[in-house]
User: What shape does this take?
Amino acid sequence: MTTSDNGGRRALRGGAIAMLALAAALSIGAILLLWAWNTLAAGLAHLPRAEFKHALAFELAVAVVAATAIASARWIAGRGAAAPARDPR
Assistant: This one.
């Protein structure tokens, strides 16, 4: 086995760990959101109880909106940096 094969495995392992961490964070976030909604809104305000799929969909929607805002801010900042160079005189 060469070192390049080993490095590829490390990169794959790191990617798998990152995906597992992302999945765990999304799951834990959805569980906490579901618990908070069902405890506060359903218990105090007598609103309908939420299911896990509703909490996960809401969390993913918020993540998409945040990612879009970050990407558009970076794109706008990048456009300003790509302005024509100044005259070196």
